[in-house]
Amino acid sequence: MPTIVAGKSKRLPPDLARRAIRRLEYINYAVSLDDLKEPPSNRLHALKSDRVGQYSISINDKWRICFRFIGGHAYDVRIIDYH
Structural domain boundaries of the chain? Predict the structure, then answer.
């Protein structure tokens, strides 16, 4: 079990970890990118430049979950501090 799901993340404070888990669940249950447009706070968008082919949803103002979405499945999922 990943450490974030077990509640043992050293990088993320507990409140941020809970929000991240919720967003990861959204990604897990999505069958299309349209499913990730709600809630609007996800702020789903395609990435550009050297990250073409990846998408991002927001955890909060500072943290994002970046991933590739192919055939109804997410790949290369990463939690990233954008600032």
Answer: 14-81
Predicted model pTM? 0.85
Question: Which homologous superfamily is 14-81 in?
Answer: RelE-like (3.30.2310.20)
B/e letters for 20-52, b = 16+ CB within 10 Å, e = fewer, are bbebbebbeebeeeeebeeeeebebeeeeeeee
Looking at the predicted structure, is the pLDDT value of residue 10 above 90? no
Q: How far apart are CA 9 and CA 70, in angstroms?
A: 28
Tell me the per-residue pLDDT of 57-76, one tens digit each, with 9 for 90 and over: 999 999 999 999 999 999 99
Residue 76 half-sphere exposure toward CB, CA atoms < 13 A? 10
Name the band, by pLDDT with cuts 50, 70 and 90, for residue 11.
Answer: confident
